[in-house]
Structures are given as C-alpha cells and as structure tokens.
C-alpha cells in the first residue's frame, strides 16, 4: 500500500470554494529507462485519479509516463453540504488505492 497525504479543510462555510491537495508515494516508472542489466525497467505508473464527493465525481485526472514520481494534485471544489470525499488512484500492474476524508459544512 502506498503512502498518501490528503489536505483539505475539516470545516467550510456553505458556498465556499475549498482547495484539496493530494500526494501519493509511487515511483512512476516510465518503461523507457534501462535498468542495471541494460533491459528496460517495466512501466509502472498511476494512470488515473478520481475524487468523488458522496459518490458524485468532482475531479478526474488521467496520468501519463511523463508524470513525476509521487504525483501531487491540487484542485478546488464548492462546499455545498457535509459529507465524505473518496480519492482513488489506479494504475499499472493492478495498482489501486482508495482513501477518504470528511468535510463538515456550516
């Protein structure tokens, strides 16, 4: 399991724009780099990131081999009601990780 960091406010006023920051530890191997024996190191990247709020998609990103290791993504959304954000990273070799964080709207 990869280490993740999710930064979003715990509370927000109704109608406020909030910033969400995510970081996941992942080597993001492109598949183009030769290894110690001269053979190409197999590709191993995160290919997709999806953020949902109470099941409704609010942000999606498609990632490619040129993305750096440990992808850091920042985006904004509108705080309309209290609930839970779910963050899912998927990638090569069956990689999938899901984390969640709650938001309370006042």
Can you give me a brief rundown of this structure?
This protein has 106 residues and is mainly β. Helix content is 0%, strand content 52%.
Architecture overview:
This protein is mainly β and 106 residues long. The protein has a single domain, classed as Immunoglobulins (Immunoglobulin-like), CATH 2.60.40.10. The protein has strands spanning 4-7, 11-12, 17-24, 46-53, 56-62, 72-78, 83-91, 96-105. The model has no long low-confidence stretch (mean pLDDT 96).
How many separate domains make up the residues? Answer: 1
CATH fold group: Immunoglobulin-like
Give the topology string: H per helix, E per strand. EEEEEEEE
> How helical, in percent, are the residues?
under 10%
Q: What structural class do the secondary elements suggest?
A: mainly beta
Strand content: over 45%
Major sheet: 5 strands, mixed
CATH-defined superfamily? Immunoglobulins
- Count of helices? 0
The pLDDT mean sits at 96
Spatial shape = elongated
Order of the strands making up the biggest sheet? 2-8-7-4-5
List the uncertain runs. none
Describe the structure using short key phrases.
106 residues, mainly beta, Immunoglobulin-like, 5-stranded mixed β-sheet, 3-stranded antiparallel β-sheet, Sulphur oxidation protein SoxZ domain-containing protein, Ig-like_fold, Ig_E-set, SoxZ
Write the layout of secondary structure elements.
Elements: E1 4-7, E2 11-12, E3 17-24, E4 46-53, E5 56-62, E6 72-78, E7 83-91, E8 96-105
Parallel strand pairs: 2-8
Antiparallel strand pairs: 1-3, 3-6, 4-5, 4-7, 7-8
């Amino acid at each position: 399991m990869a280490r993740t960091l999710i930064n979003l406010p715990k509370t927000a006023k109704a109608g406020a724009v909030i910033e969400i920051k995510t970081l996941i530890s992942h080597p993001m191997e492109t598949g183009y780099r030769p290894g110690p024996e001269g053979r190409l190191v197999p590709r191993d990247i995160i290919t997709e990131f999806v953020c949902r709020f109470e099941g409704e998609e609010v942000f999606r990103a498609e990632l490619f081999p040129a993305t750096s290791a440990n992808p850091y993504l920042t985006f904004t959304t509108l705080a309309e009601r209290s609930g839970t954000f779910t963050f899912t990273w998927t990638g090569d070799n069956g990689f999938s990780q899901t984390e969640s964080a709650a938001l309370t709207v006042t």
